[in-house]
Design goal:
- The chain is an alpha+beta fold and 136 residues long.
- Helices cover 24% and strands 37% of the residues.
- It is built from 2 helices and 7 strands.
- Strand 5 and strand 6 form a beta hairpin.
């Protein structure tokens, strides 16, 4: 379990660092054994995740193929909130959200949820069911 936590934090840190350096709109093509990179996206308050990134992510979930998607969205006040979505081989998604930069409500810190049933809603990824958030 400790190894999973270390890998998750390391993956989020890498995703956050990559996300803070700008976004990409096109996912990287990969083989069946590799982890699909659906991109790193820095969104504005009203921005949507690019359609190609959502398609990459949802296709990976459906195929139970490992994939990652990093999205940074601002709070209403403009504080960046990075979220890393990681698809497992069983089709579940680990969602790690970093609230540490939220100056007006970020008491949650770094949290992990395990989610199922993703769908695209208004250019965002929503889930039918998620576990309770676990601090990291």
């Amino acid at each position: 379990m400790a190894l999973v936590a270390v890998l998750t934090v390391a993956t989020v840190s890498a995703g956050v660092a990559a996300t803070n350096n700008g976004g990409t709109d096109a996912p990287s093509p990969v083989g069946a054994e590799a982890t699909a990179n659906c991109g790193n996206h820095m969104l504005g308050l009203m921005d949507r995740i690019p359609e190609a990134a959502i398609t990459c992510f949802l296709d990976a979930v459906e195929a139970h193929r490992p994939a990652r998607l990093a999205v940074t969205s601002p709070t209403t006040e403009g504080d960046p909130i990075p979220t890393l979505y990681v698809v497992g081989e069983d089709g579940t998604v680990e969602v790690t959200t970093d609230f540490r930069q939220d100056r007006f409500g970020g008491g949650q810190g770094l949290v992990l949820e395990r989610c199922t049933g993703p769908e695209a809603t208004n250019g965002r990824i929503m889930f039918r069911q998620c576990s309770s958030p676990v601090p990291r």
